[in-house]
Amino acid sequence: MDKVKRFYPQGHHGTDKEGRPVYIERIGKVDAAQLLEVTTLERYLKYHVLEFEKLLNIKFPACSLAVKRHIDSTTTILDVAGVVSPFLCPPPHNG
Asked: Does pTM top 0.90 for this prediction?
């Protein structure tokens, strides 16, 4: 999974001030071609399901215990630095 994380950098990184787990995805650093050389789409989806199960069964209970109240949501940060998309940055008009 180290190679997968190198080509699709993401993961949980601590908690926010409310005690929720913080999940960060660095979309602009994704290398889809390299990712598919080290795993299959099916295996990658299975990895995400397993990570979500860990979130439900381990991280949420641990966070709830730490802040002494029920935690059942995350803070998600999508880092889009480096993303090239006509929807995010339309081409200049030549007119």
From this structure: no
